Amino acid sequence: MKIMITGVAGFIGSHLLSHCLGAGHQVIGIDNFLTGKMSNIEDVLAENIDYARRFELLHEDIRHLDVMKRAAEGVDLIFHEAAIGSVPWSIREPLLAHETNLTGFLNILEAAKANHIKRVVYASSSAVFGDSECIPAKEGAEGACLSVYASSKRSQEIYAEAYARCYGLEIIGLRYFNVFGRRQDPNGAYAAVIPRWAKSMASGVPCTIFGDGQATRDYCHVSNIVRANMLAASVGLSGSGDALAMNIGCGVETSLLELHAMMAEKFEEKYKIRVQPARHEAARLGDIERSVADISLAGEILGFSPEMSVREGVHELIETEQFDIIHA
């Protein structure tokens, strides 16, 4: 197939790129490099000498409709990963988050419609559950949106339903829970906890835990996310005009204390260093205490189940990522 991937230079987008090229597909990659990194693309292309021949990178922005329509010419399938993916960033710059996450998403759907591309698979988010008290989080039990980011992702799902009904598109949203893995950026104010902690452990700096460490998340290795996307790309649906949104995670709660312990254990085993004890700070306003996915719908519709556990994923990350180790 000829596949278009937006946000191709990002963390998840680059892993999708690697899989699609490895499966023999041709890929058109879109990225404006606001957060994406050319090094992620280079890392993927270095995997196989044949990959560059089947890959075209367009340094473009999904906010430009005409550009997206031209980019999607001759495309069979779209994976839409581009987004302002940070809650704090969306609150600080709500218009940018809206233009990228919602207007950009509509541009992708318009590009699909104009080029008769039936299937679009896009990244939604566990943020759509907001203040829901349903644990595990289950589709249909969404709460109030707590950020501009959450609102933009929930709006994507609503527009997807409308476009499916009105134009006969098949649109599948995957509500990612806490994704981690190689090439995830550890720097910046909005870095996810696992790459941030890995950098701290390698540098001999104590990790920061906000609150007492009992807060839980559903950490999901990026290989599981790629698998879910490929299943969503090929699953047979009931017919033209379907729009679905479903949870993708491991369905397992891991507390911050448990996560810190498993990461520290692996760092000490591999690098023969002593990881500093974590330091605690006050819990942050708006942080929820528990988050875990009910993934039964993805299992029923996609045949999805996670193949890599949290512990296996943490070990894989620490074994394969390059860290600048500082020995005390």
Task: Characterise the protein shown here.
- The protein is α/β, with parallel strands linked by helices and 328 residues long.
- The protein has a domain at 2-180 and 222-248: NAD(P)-binding Rossmann-like Domain (Rossmann fold, 3-Layer(aba) Sandwich), CATH 3.40.50.720.
- It contains eleven helices and 13 strands.
- Strands 3-2-1-4-5-6-11 form a seven-stranded parallel beta sheet, sandwiched between helices.
- The protein is globular, with a radius of gyration of 19 Å.
- The mean pLDDT is 94.
β-sheet strand percentage: 15-25%
Helical segment tally? 11
Structural class: alpha/beta
User: N-to-C terminal Cα separation, in Å?
Assistant: 51 Å
Count of strand segments: 13
